[in-house]
Amino acid sequence: MRFFIARNRVPVLVTCICVLLFLIYVVGAPDTFLQPGIYAALMGTVAFSGILAIAATFIVTLGEIDLSFPSIMGLSAWVFAATYSSLGNFPLSFVLCLSVGLLLGLFNGVIIAKVGVPSIVLTIGTMFVWRGLIHVLVQGQSITLNQLDGTIWNSLLVGRFAGYVPAQFIWFVGIAIVLGLIYRRHRFGSHVLFVGDNAASARMVGIDTDMVKIQCFVLMGAMSAIAGLLSLAFNQSFFPTHGDSMLLPTLSAVFIGGTSVFGGKGTIWGTFMGVLIMGSLETGIVALGLTGFWYQFIAGLTIVTSVVIYALLLRKVG
Amino acid sequence: MTQALLELHDIRLSFGRLAVLKGVSFDVHPGEIVALVGDNGAGKSSLIKVVTGVHRPTSGEILFKGKPITLTSVRKSREMGIETVYQERALADQQELWRNVFVGREQTGLGGFLDIKRQKEETRRLLRDYMGFTSEVIGVDSEVKGLSGGEKQGVAIARALYFNAELIILDEPTTGLVLSEQRKVLKFIRNIRDKGKAAIFIDHNIFHVHDVADRFVILDKGEVAARFTKQEISRDALIDKMVELHEKGTIAR
Questions:
Q1: pLDDT digits over A166-193, tens only?
Q2: Of A85, A162, B28, B189, whose CB has the highest number of CB atoms within 10 Å?
Q3: Which of B52, B87, B89, B98 best tests the A interface by mutation, with the highest count of A CBs <10 A?
Q4: pLDDT digits (tens, 9 = 90+) for B184-223
Q5: Please, what is the Cα angle at B15 between B10 and B16, to 5 degrees?
């Protein structure tokens, strides 16, 4: 047990923070947090940035960053909304939506790995390009997706499982489990860790470091499309700003989860906890009787405190 | 004499008009450590890059176990049994030993998932048999950053031996290490010969070179300036020879 904690300080710590936070909610606002309904609502809303954060963990582990995923999310959701609202064909709309996510991810990956543009610089650019393209295409118009309501597809995406658990949360947990296994227990995840840790050494053992990077950005693109589709189905309408609000909560969840910005180190479990923390703060703060104005302040404090603790922990262990 | 493991015949390498290697020939036999010595810019690193598949020679022939070969990539030379141990690139610091030992050559089961149990067992065996580690302080789950500089290179050498490398190339393995660590590394290098494998050893420290190597190939401005076996030349004579070449070079420039 002691050995387990020593080897997993950061994930253990973030789990403690998460549990502590929910204890505070329950003690401070029992009226809200002893109702099962609140948990169903939370599960329903954390899923979108959760799916994004799981994929972003791979990118950050590489020592890279992606700021363009909210725009990829927006553009792929628009493609779905536009196709589905005019043709009503779900499989076709879904394939197009996913293809856009994959392609835009591929674009990021190829430019970063093969041309050598730093990811932070390139993805600031692509963030504006894809968002700008949405604005040009839709000219400020939103698209409503009432036809999706009541279909089997809708229940599969955002229905309630057993009348309680939101389907999108099950998708999130499923994706987290699969990608978590890949991160720690698959050849690909191992290569991601090595490329982020020491790219020269990874190359020496024959890892195609460019390909690993490209694959991670493609994964980010695919998960952006899926998160885009799920939140589109949840809201039943497309706005040109679709996905915009996801950037900071998603990346914050990854960093609260203890994934190192320097690369080579991280856990999917930590990110999962980070998602629960970031996703519950606003509701929790309001339930505790503070006004919504406190949200950013407390979210900021949580992020700063946790990353400072991790930095100190890592320095001590050396 | 036994069949040479690696033979280089008249290897030339140019970048544009700049000739880096001007017809280098030498060979390495199994169970032998050959030291490449020479000043900076003598062509040692370039020669190593030819042998490991980083650079294609402009002309010349490479024979491995008597057969002509073309080395096109690090991966290919590694598969053939030629492995390089670079000091700072040996291992990834934040990853566990079991991951480091098998990286790029993972033991996988269904769908590319790692056989972690097997990798850990084999790493434990490797640490015990090749390095004599039996303590609980450094285990298969330890991150590499807990190891000393000498131990890291020891693991990299052990890894190469474990995967049946026939020829291990060591690029300045003792540079920048404290004395006790240097001694460890030299021990690991002798281990290569004891296992009947061959090594090419590059180091600026002539004391180490003379101590460990069986033969010396002195490079100067892209050519072989001299070759000696250990019996033919004393350590002091080797140092004199190096100084002489160095001074000649300085005056000529």
A1: 999 999 999 999 999 999 999 999 999 9
A2: B189
A3: B89
A4: 889 889 989 998 999 999 988 888 888 899 999 999 889 9
A5: 115
Interface test with chain A among B78, B91, B95, by most A beta carbons within 10 Å: B95
What is the model's pTM?
Answer: 0.90
pLDDT at A129: 98
In the 3-class helix/strand/coil scheme, how is chain A assigned residue by residue?
A: CHHHHHHCHHHHHHHHHHHHHHHHHHHHCHHHHCCHHHHHHHHHHHHHHHHHHHHHHHHHHCCCCCCCHHHHHHHHHHHHHHHHHHHCCHHHHHHHHHHHHHHHHHHHHHHHHHHCCCHHHHHHHHHHHHHHHHHHHHCCCCEECHHHCCCHHHHHHHCEECCCEEHHHHHHHHHHHHHHHHHHHEHHHHHHHHHHHCHHHHHHCCCCHHHHHHHHHHHHHHHHHHHHHHHHHHHCEECCCCCHHHHHHHHHHHHHCCCCCCCCCCCHHHHHHHHHHHHHHHHHHHHCCCCCCHHHHHHHHHHHHHHHHHHHHHHHHC
| Whole-angstrom distance, CA of residue B84 vs CA of residue B44 | 14
> Are B104 and A205 within 8 A, CB to CB?
yes
- Please name the member of B75, B91, B99 whose beta carbon is closest to the beta carbon of A190: B99
CA separation for the pair A164, A213 (Å, rounded): 39
Closest C-alpha among B71, B75, B40, B43 to residue B57: B71
Residue A1 has pLDDT above 80, yes or no: no
Tens digit of each residue's pLDDT (9 = 90 or more) over A81-114: 999 999 999 999 999 999 999 999 999 999 999 9
The ipTM (two decimal places) reads: 0.86
pLDDT lower than 50: segments of chain B:
253
A201 vs B contacts (CB less than 8 Å)? 89-92
Of A186, A194, A318, which has the smallest distance from its Cβ to B103's Cβ? A194
Contact B212, B37 (CB under 8 A): no
How many A/B residue pairs have CB atoms within 8 Å? 70
